[in-house]
Amino acid sequence: MPPGTAPSSSPARAPEPPARRRTVPTSVIAVVALLTAAVVTSPVAPPAQARAAEPVTGFASVNAYGQNGTTGGAGGPSVTVTTAAQLKDYAGRPGPYVLWISGSIRISDMITVVAHKSILGLGSTAEITGGGLQLGSTTRPGNNVIIRNIRFTGAEDDSISVTNKAHHVWIDHNDFSAGTDGLLDIKRESDLVTVSWNTFHHHSKALLLGHSDTYTADIGKLRVTYHHNFFDGTDQRHPRVRFAEPVHVFNNYYRNNALYGVASTENAGVLVEGNYFENVAHPVHVGYAESEPGRVVERRNIYDRSGVPEAMGTVVEPATYYAYALDDPATVPATVQAGAGVGKLGY
């Protein structure tokens, strides 16, 4: 798979609009172990052969909370779903399942995904539109979930919400656009998440990390890795971070982002490294809008026709949790455009 301390000058900030592979993992994770005795709920069968294990890099690979990395629905039945009713049914069932999305599924509001699920798109046309996926509820945790190779568009609220203490989540090789609120929010004490090789476009608010300025229960949680994502013309929140440390933002491609790239607030600790910023006036903020400043270490980034990044303080090194290999930032635009998004996995 294709798979600082001193503050610098601070550019003027635009107001935030109102709400409306080559990496080296710490462990090799079996992502989709498919059973040959599959349950099939539509005429379209999922791939018959078990796929080789694919590694996840970043915080989703860390062993913690009694969970050894992120395995999703490995070991459970493989099911093809073609309707909203089927998706809601199987995503909410206890135990592991590998759910294959076939074609376009229109849903409304949010479907709750509970623990030990892999939700994978078949081919390059798998789509969830009109609504989104919420990982877990206050009574049914959404831990150990994998979401890959799906186009999310037109959500009434968030496209994906990782919430309610969900941990060990891998969101990889998806396409996000044209939602009503956030494209991908991670909040409410969730932890150990990797967001990799996704494309984000035709939207304003891309990635929120942290519920609000007053939700201090997030302190000590929200450890997230964002790598090899393409932020193509999205305005802001790539991500916007509150309280979390460390947050690792590496080898992402930012292009034509009107308001800002990354914002660290409320004493969050964010490492921004090896990214490529193209035509981004405010690539990195320390503090934003009404939020208090966070901390940022930035290194080895390229700022092509972009502004001066802000940096302040020190940040816990993500390498204390997991190993990774950093791509040359000069290669990031080509690598990310070739590898990010749907239809790249051979499913």
From TrEMBL:
InterPro entries: PbH1 (IPR006626), Pec_lyase (IPR002022), Pectin_lyas_fold (IPR012334), Pectin_lyase_fold/virulence (IPR011050), PEL (IPR045032). Residues 74-283 form the Pectate lyase domain. It comes from the Bacteria. It holds the Pfam family Pectate_lyase_4. Keywords: Carbohydrate metabolism, Lyase, Polysaccharide degradation, Secreted. It is found in: Secreted. One of its GO terms (biological process) is polysaccharide catabolic process. Belongs to the polysaccharide lyase 1 family. This is Pectate lyase.
